[in-house]
Amino acid sequence: MDLRHTDVVKYVGTTGTASQAASTMGAAADSGAPAGAHAQIGGERTTRARIARLILENGPVSAAALSTRLGLTPAAVRRHLDGLLAGGMIEVRSARRPASRGRGRPAKLFVITDAGRSAFEHAYDDLATSALRFLAEVAGPGAVTEFARRQVAELERRYRPVMASADPGAKVQALAEALSADGYAASATGAPAGSSGEQLCQHHCPVAHVAAEFPQLCEAETEAFGRLLGTPVQRLATIAHGDGICTTHVTDQSLVQTRTTTTAANTNITESGGISA
Q1: What span, in angstroms and rounded, lies between the C-alpha atoms of 149 and 221?
Q2: What is the CATH number of the domain that holds 33?
Q3: Of 58, 119, 135, 167, most Cβ neighbours within 10 A?
Q4: pLDDT per position as a tens digit, 29-60
Q5: What's the N-to-C CA distance of the chain in angstroms?
Q6: Residue 170: which pLDDT band, with cuts at 50, 70 and 90?
Q7: pTM for the complete prediction?
Q8: Where in the sequence is the domain holding 201, given as residue range(s)?
């Protein structure tokens, strides 16, 4: 046994070390990530893994912000950032400098790469996929749909008190914060110009590989979002199908109320015999 001051406790000479290293390298090759990618992330307990997760969930983010969040010196953070950059786990973007700041070197912001994102995927994806395949073969596709809905029901149960206490105009933001607390790295933004409503974006999906074969998981989650927000929603993009972000369009509540009022008025007119369609 040997302890080395590298921010990580290393066990030297224990059995199984070589086979574990070979397994890690094989997983990196299978996923298409750089050979050192998974080895760099290692366990979630390491400082480098904590930095990578903060970049995943809060990126683009600066080295100074990471230093403050982790309580580390800027030099220590930069050392880990250099390692993540070398492994292809993160990349650098330049922040736009406001005109009022004058000249100067643009601040560096760090964002996660596809290889970095894949390092956080669950090790049990293959097992979960095989289990769902077996369920579909034995009980039919409907059983997979029911399983997905039951899985999402627990998430919906936990989020419902949060949504009930949120202001009517801030429900999408409240849902994004709840999802981020569960590791989905979610955010709420306005819809693109020319359309109304908001967009709920999830930058990380822990079941992306499984959902690629079983879209029932995404469908059940979308249904839950609609119930929690109390308005129609539509999934526009998913990480499971190769998009960079899971994007859900949330219909503006005012449009739903207007449509409901108009429908009720038309029904009253028809029932009174004044006008019929």
Answers
A1: 8
A2: 1.10.10.10
A3: 119
A4: 334 444 444 444 444 347 888 898 888 877 78
A5: 84
A6: very high
A7: 0.55
A8: 125-259
Candidate from 21-25, 162-166, 193-197 with smallest mean pLDDT: 21-25
| Within-domain flag for 276 | no
- For the cut 90, the answer to whether the pLDDT of residue 165 exceeds it is yes
The pLDDT tens digits for 198-245 are 999 999 888 888 999 999 999 999 999 999 999 999 999 999 998 889
Rounded average pLDDT over 12-34:
36
Separation of CA 277 from chain center: 46
One domain for residues 142 and 71: no
Closest CA to 60 of 18, 15, 112: 112
In this model, does residue 151 exceed pLDDT 50? yes
- Could you tell me if 155 and 237 lie in one domain? yes
Q: What is the CATH number of the domain that holds 236?
A: 3.30.1380
In total, how many domains does the chain have? 2
Whether residue 91 contacts residue 111, with contact meaning beta carbons closer than 8 Å, is answered with yes
